Backbone:
């Protein structure tokens, strides 16, 4: 303690505050009159009751006096070391799954579930396209066809008529995208609708 370094005499003032935090080793106090915030060690608190948030406290206090113009570099060094440790600790990976009340495996499974479903869906679509494709011929079904449909420019291998539908078998060497595009012209307004089987191998 360097009481003799003070240039001005004591001016004791009675002050009051309210306890806002209670910890194992200290308490935090809000000073009344918006005069600030104070945290003191538990050993400096005189009390006859169990300490609780919201309790009022009173104490005598003088003004804080600056002792000199030069900083205390030892304290600055200690402060920088402490802040660096806090920064490094904050960069460590935090197990967020604990906040969610999940195990690590369940947490990662929960995060990856949408991606797993998307991959399975894409795989299923590709599997259907491959295994459901007919690489030998296309099957064109025309429902309620008109009498004047002309498909002479297409590689028709066979034609089967039924009550309200005509089924055409076409050569599979025709590129599927071109076939779909070219069929729009002769079948436009010539039937209720038409369907065609797919051939994924025509894109290879």
Residues:
């Amino acid at each position: 303690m360097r009481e003799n370094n003070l240039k001005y005499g004591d001016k004791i003032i009675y002050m009051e505050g309210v306890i806002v935090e209670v910890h194992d080793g200290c308490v935090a106090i809000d000073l009344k009159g918006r005069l600030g915030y104070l945290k003191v060690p538990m050993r400096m608190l005189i009390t006859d009751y169990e300490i609780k948030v919201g309790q009022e406290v009173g104490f005598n206090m003088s003004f804080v006096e600056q002792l000199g113009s030069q900083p205390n570099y030892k304290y600055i060094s200690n402060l920088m070391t402490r802040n660096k440790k806090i920064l490094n600790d904050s960069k460590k990976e935090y197990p967020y799954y604990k906040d969610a009340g999940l195990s690590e495996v369940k947490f990662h499974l929960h995060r990856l579930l949408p991606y797993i479903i998307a991959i399975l869906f894409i795989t299923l679509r590709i599997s259907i396209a491959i295994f459901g494709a007919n690489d030998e011929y296309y099957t064109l079904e025309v429902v309620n066809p008109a009498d004047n449909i002309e498909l002479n420019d297409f590689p028709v291998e066979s034609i089967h008529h039924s009550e309200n539908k005509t089924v055409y078998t076409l050569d599979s060497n025709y590129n599927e995208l071109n076939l779909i595009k070219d069929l729009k012209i002769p079948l436009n307004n010539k039937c209720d609708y038409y369907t065609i089987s797919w051939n994924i191998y025509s894109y290879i």
In short: DSSP finds three helices and eight strands in the chain. The radius of gyration is 42 Å. The CA atoms of residues 152 and 186 lie 10 Å apart. Helices lie at 73-91, 104-131, 176-187.
